[in-house]
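hey m, so remember when u said the tokens were messed up on ur end? i reran from scratch. heres the input so u can diff it against urs
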Amino acid sequence: MRSVRARAAIGATLVVAVALVAAGLAVLSVLRTNLIDQADLQAEVAAREVAGQLALDTAYADLDLDDEEDHPVQVTDEEGRVVFVSQGLRAISGTGSAGVSPVPSASVGATPSPGDDDDDDGDDDDGGGSGRPERGEVSSDDPDFSDGTATVDGKKADYRFAAVEATTSAGITLTVHAGAPLAAEQEAVNTVRGAMLTGLPLLLAVVAGVTWLVTRRALRPVEGIRREMAAITASEDLARRVPEPDSRDEIARLARTTNETLTVLEASVERQRRFVGDASHELRSPIASLRTQLEVAEAHPELLDLPGAVADTVRLQVLAADLLLLARLDAGEKPGAARIEAGALVREEVSQRTGDRIPVTVEVAEGAAYEVSGSRGQLVRVVGNLLDNAQRHAENRITVQVAADGRGVRVEVRDDGAGVPEDERERIFERFVRLDDARSRDDGGAGLGLAIARDVAARHGGTLTVHRAPEGGAAFRLWLPRAAWPAS
């Protein structure tokens, strides 16, 4: 099942089906309980009516029974023997006694009913010698209920029976079982169950269809995004963009994020192409110059310009090293975690530059420690590139200052040259960019030094910016965070 629409439709249908089945069972349970409670009430009322008549010593034959077909009655004595059944009752179950043939009760002698007077001693004038109550009573306790069946006039049906006890004036305890039919309850439950079984499939079909259509409509922009991405992949045209729906939902955000990703990817690919083209161009010059000199030397050894060949080789070596470092930075190479004292690093780098055109002044507070963490080789490269840039543009003075700056260390390289125009202060950090295009490439470099310096600074969590120096030239400000103290 690879379709999101199908999975969504099936999932929604299953959830609705489970909810409807649970709700249906709950409705049937409540309905059945309410109808049984009504049947219990009817059975209790019928049983108490009969029990009340028996408590008044009404003869069995004179009992007034309402609707004997709907409310069959069975009366048993203390020994569980059947002493009375309603007319037409042919079979019964669920009352504790299956008898439907009344027998004389031993508790009342041979009398067929509690209404017969069998007193022969004539001592009932004062009523004090018999010890019998003047009238019986009906038990006020809650009746017992049970399910059973009864056959009345040849028709068998299910009933709900209530058992109520009655005591006659003679002290005889009788139990009256009266039933209420469950046909209405069963019919109502069956009707509701049938309606649910009929309507459930139709409702689930509607839910599945609506979910399918809604999901299809919601995912239509996704299909448009997929088709456009497939076309971009096939054509390799990163200038194309996926359609963005007008809605403000997740799909619209997905389309916008996709277009933003394409924009970044296009810029990255364009930058990579430009980098490859510029690198090829920069490499071509020293290689061609070196080849020309070697060919001339092969034909005329006396004309060999050995210093020029060495210079071209060195330039080629430096350019190859710069390109290799940029490749490693672009690949996400992380700097090391060595602790480096920035003042000592600057002094060491300046001391090794013995062939510089202009001497460099280092300003570091005595006794101060400015520790940073990272790759010593890369940070040396940054300082060297900044000094190389200053040597190309300075007229008489170059100063390197190391000082604390907030939570970090500031290394500032200043010169007294022409400076950098304000509108060019970001462009000079781009690769292969030189503001001195009119000068020779030998003097101006390949335009990679400042780009490498900023990339290294960013990899170390710092920044590299350019400002106007007090001397009037450029001030390149390298900021690096201080090294964290090791946990004790």
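this time it looks ok to me. Residues 464 and 478 are 5 Å apart (CA to CA). if urs says something different then somethings off w ur setup not the seq
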